[in-house]
Amino acid sequence: MPGKPVTDQQVRVYMTDRLQHSQRVAAARAGFSERTARRIDADPRLPSQRPAPRGRTVPDPLEAVWEPVLLPILARDPAVQAVTLLRHLQTSDPEAFPDDRVRRTLERRVRDWRALNGPERDVIFRQTPEPGRMALSDFTDANELCVTIAGQPLEQRLYHFVLAYSGWEHAAVVLGGESFPALAENLQNALWTLGGVPGEHRTDSLSAAYRNLDAEAAADVTKRYDAFCAHYGMLASRNNPGEAHENGSVEAHNNHLKVALDQALILRGSRDFADLASWRRFVDELVARRNRRRESAVRIEMAALRPLPARRTTDFTEVVARVTKTGGFLVHQVFYSAPSQLIGKRSNRRFASGETGPCLRRPDRGLSRSDPCRHAPRRRGRDDGTRVHCVNYRHVIHALRRKPQALAGSVYRDGLFPRSEYAEAWVALSAALPRRDACRRMVDLLWLAHEEGCEAELAALIAQTLGHGELPEAHALRSKLEPRRRELPDDTPVNLTDLARFDELLEARA
């Protein structure tokens, strides 16, 4: 039949039948045409014994330029593309190559040349994972999930921890960048949730763990990440730059996790959450369901994991900053207020990866180390360089009461108001009263909230007063506040120790 090559078996059948039948009949019995039979009679060799080389049916359009023009370019840099070579030919000889009709021919010719003469290609060696040997960590952008918190878009990453053998995973929502606190805190959460420690921890070239020096640098691991891995007895390793497949056990899981979260959000019917804690709980529940499908492999891996150390290790960053006369300190383009007693003191500020900001504890000198730790909410600098303020009005209210006129022009005035009701009160006061009176009234309201510890209750009274079209005034609102109990109740039971007990202690000691 046309289009099908004749086989050796057909030729043998034809030669046998040709002894008894005519050429036409023998060809028909063998399954090919009479014309093919005449070619076989002319050359009785089997098809396998006489392969006919296929010749070119049309002239080679690249014959004049392939060896003298194109091959030197390919030999100099095999990365050059076929379309680049074609544009070079059209520029140098536009009459011979007026259009792109030879593009496909040139692409095939370049492809065949690379297969025979091109550079050596990298080979991926698939690995057999061993239980308990390796865990991998990575940060992945999760903004594509389009999650909102109370209607506001959430800028987020996901920290992802995966065991190479069983696929057990841990995920956490990270609001900042790929910092050491984010890596240390979430990696420790994963290890303590897992209940064991693998032999090796692999990442890509995280700046939180590596200084990313040249390839021959002997001490490329940062000291704190090196100390972190030593605390847990893990070997720190990373994949080669640009070789994402070497971190493939977690890279593939990143996509699977985000697809699973996206599908779960579709089933939920909404991507908006009341608060960040609700979104984190949603992620934890989905990861727990995915881990339940790996229970048999996890049991095998758990037997090979090493035990956890007696305690966790550092998961924060310490920054030394001086509290200036403006009542605060600057870290990462964010101004944090501090108690006025710390002005002029140089102190250690601890920054964690979550929403907790600097811990105002353990100053180097000037204050006792036994002072309670004071946390501020975490703020992050803006990309445009504009300074962000995180101010607690309790830190500056004493100074502000002495100088109330400073409120109007303060650079962090809007950050002083603890609740939106106070900000609305300032707008109303500044619009209805002269600046001097508006500042005095507003400072009196903040002082009342601080002195009586009634921030929420006073905010409700301010909103009620504004709702009636009146201006809030501290003296009038003080009488409406529920009085605080400043005396201990008379019926508080007090158990006194018998004095004879002390005599027994002295005799026992003697």
Task: Identify the notable features of this structure and list them briefly.
19 helices; Nucleotidyltransferase, domain 5; alpha/beta; five-stranded mixed sheet; 510 residues; three-stranded mixed sheet; single chain
How would you describe this structure to a colleague?
With 510 residues, the protein is of the alpha/beta class. The chain has 5 domains: 8-49; 66-117, no CATH class; 134-302, Nucleotidyltransferase, domain 5 (2-Layer Sandwich), CATH 3.30.420.10; 317-390, no CATH class; 396-478, no CATH class. The protein is 42% helix and 13% strand. The chain contains 19 helices and 15 strands. A 5-stranded mixed β-sheet has the order 5-4-1-6-7. Helix 8 links the parallel strand 6 (200-203) and strand 7. Helix 12 packs across helix 16 (435-452).
User: Biggest sheet: strands, sense, closure?
Assistant: 5 strands, mixed
Number of domains: 5
Q: How much beta, percentage-wise?
A: 5-15%
Question: Shape from CA axes?
Answer: elongated
- The whole-angstrom Rg is 39 Å
CATH class of the largest domain: Alpha Beta
Distance between the termini: 119 Å
Number of strands: 15
CATH topology of the largest domain: Nucleotidyltransferase, domain 5
- Summarize model confidence as the mean pLDDT: 81
Structural class: alpha/beta
| Separate helix tally | 19
Q: From the 3D coordinates, which CATH architecture of the largest domain would you assign?
A: 2-Layer Sandwich
Fraction of residues in helices? 40-55%
